[in-house]
Design a protein that fits this description.
Elements (H helix, E strand, L loop, with lengths): L1 E2 L6 E9 L4 H11 L7 E7 L4 E7 L2 H4 L2 H5 L5 E9 L12 E5 L2 E11 L2 H10 L10 H10 L5 H9 L4 E8 L3 E6 L8 E4 L5 E4 L3 H6 L2 E5 L5 E5 L5 E3 L9 E2 L1 H6 L5 E2 L2 E2 H15 L6 E4 L5 H11 L7 E3 L12 H11 E3 L1 H4 L3 E6 L6 H12 L4 E6 L21 H4 L2 H8 L3 E4 L2 H7 L7 E2 L1 H4 L9 E2 L6
Parallel strand pairs: 15-24, 18-21, 21-22, 22-23
Antiparallel strand pairs: 1-25, 2-5, 2-11, 3-4, 3-5, 6-7, 7-8, 8-9, 9-13, 10-11, 10-12, 13-14, 16-17, 19-20
Length: about 475
């Protein structure tokens, strides 16, 4: 089988602010709202007009920043980052934002996405004298910027990014500005807003604006570079050739918070429509419709609506356990299923249960959920998935395993149903998913479902694989 082995591949969240005396505190709050995008590490870099101040730590946002740490982050400009690495090592040196000194002045950088030619660029840079301090592909961008001979920092950034391939939403911090950049395909989201006092904010999702009372003004366009200077007019640049828009459809299926709006489409509404379409494609005799919380809740509501069956919270999630999909270690992922979910016997016993989830990756979690429901006396268990089978890994910044570990890559739907021990299994079709999220109005990346990758990457053969 084929895979792409890229150190530092991560799914993350970024936040930035320009022109506010409490820039660090507001960035801290913004990162709280983006915590679902990464639970491994958190960091903030600020600028007081002369030098950068930084604090990075492993763990959740509220564990990473004490009042004393925030008090040391002086300045009216800040960028922040929450990280979850999928291939690089889980250690502090890989936490972001990165902060470095260049001939153009100090620069901080925060990155959501993945560069598909990072290894190739890194090898070239190392062969010509560059020394890397992290496993992150973000550091490749830093070295390319440092080597540039352009005088203007936005020109240096643009020149560096013209050499990379992949998905990126980036925030750069300088002594006088925050520079936001989105890749030409717009794979990862990035939006801009404004606080009532006029300060500008930038974030991966507008839910970060809601928490701090900022208005969501617009999304950055694919390929746009937005220069946000303190007390200056915004500059919008288009330094890259136009490319087909390929927003990641998985943002709607699972990754974004349901109260976010991505590309003009409310995520909660999109997920509920995914459920409606799923029920139309795969009806079932339902005594009760039960979601796998929390991401399966809106879709299950849509399924229940179309089937005319009661919607119940038959699985109760512990809010003291993180999202199992983004736990760093496989051992934690498996153990976490029992810690995370508990069945409600009175809701499930004696019922034909339709259980709705957003996706099946390896299948181990779904198998245990079906067993939980059967163990409390359900008459039958029908699994419904509000996305197509996940058959291909993502190389653009979402955590998915190699093809060998994806159950749908090597098993038929009947085989998956037998493995799950469910009475029936239904996945949403690719066409139904795109219709539900409004794909007719814009392009989407759906490579993890279809294998149609919009951005090139270097492939390597895995020994013993399919070839």
């Amino acid at each position: 089988m084929w895979y792409y082995n890229a150190p530092g591949r991560a799914m993350c969240g970024v936040f930035g602010i320009v022109g506010h005396p409490e820039a660090a505190n507001l960035t801290y709050l913004g990162l709280h709202a983006l915590q679902h995008r990464g639970q491994e590490s958190a960091g903030i870099v600020t600028c007081d007009g002369a030098r950068l101040h930084q604090h990075r730590a492993m763990g959740l946002v509220h564990d990473s920043f004490t009042p004393e740490a925030l008090g040391r982050l002086q300045g009216r400009l800040a960028i922040g980052h929450v990280r979850y690495s999928t291939a690089g090592t889980s250690e502090l040196r890989n936490a972001q934002p990165l902060a470095v000194a260049t001939s153009a002045g100090p620069v901080g950088v925060a990155h959501n996405g993945n560069l598909t030619n990072a290894q190739e660029l890194r090898a070239h840079l190392e062969s010509t004298g560059s020394i890397f301090q992290t496993d992150s592909d973000t550091e490749v961008i830093v070295h390319l910027i440092a080597r540039s001979t352009a005088q203007d920092l936005p020109d240096r950034i643009a020149g560096a990014l013209r050499q990379v391939r992949g998905a990126y939403s980036l925030l750069f911090l300088t002594k006088s500005a925050v520079i936001a950049v989105r890749d030409p395909h717009g794979v990862r989201p990035l939006c801009v807003g404004r606080l009532p006092d006029g300060a500008t904010v930038v974030a991966s999702e507008p839910t970060a604006f809601d928490l701090i009372g900022a208005d969501h003004e617009r999304d950055l366009a694919p390929g746009e570079m937005l220069v946000l200077g303190d007390g200056e007019e915004r500059r919008s640049l288009a330094p890259f050739p136009a490319a087909p828009e390929k927003l990641c459809v998985f943002e709607y299926v699972y990754f974004a918070r349901p109260d976010s709006t991505i590309a003009g489409r409310n995520v909660y509404a999109a997920r509920r429509e995914l459920g409606r379409q799923l029920a139309r494609e795969h009806p079932a005799r339902a005594g009760v419709v039960v979601p796998v919380p929390d991401s399966g809740v809106p879709a299950a509501m849509g399924v229940a609506e179309v089937l005319g069956a009661p919607f119940e919270l038959g699985l109760i999630r512990s809010h003291y356990v993180g999202r199992t999909f983004i736990e760093p270690q496989q051992s934690i992922r498996h153990f976490g299923v029992k810690l995370k979910l508990a069945p409600v016997r009175d809701v499930l016993a004696g019922k034909d249960v339709v259980v709705v989830d957003d996706s099946i990756v390896r299948g181990t979690t779904s198998r245990k959920i079906v067993k939980m429901i059967r163990d409390v006396g359900a008459s039958s268990v029908h699994v419904r998935i509000s996305s197509p089978p996940t058959r291909w890994p993502c190389f653009y910044g979402i955590d998915t395993p190699t093809r060998r570990e994806l159950i749908a890559a090597s098993h038929s739907l009947d085989e998956i149903a037998r493995y799950l021990t469910c009475d029936s299994l239904g996945y949403l079709s690719l066409e139904g998913m795109l219709k539900a999220v409004g794909a007719s109005a814009r392009g989407h990346c759906h490579a993890c479902f279809s294998g149609e990758y919009p951005i090139d990457f270097v492939m390597q053969a895995e020994e013993g694989g399919e070839g």
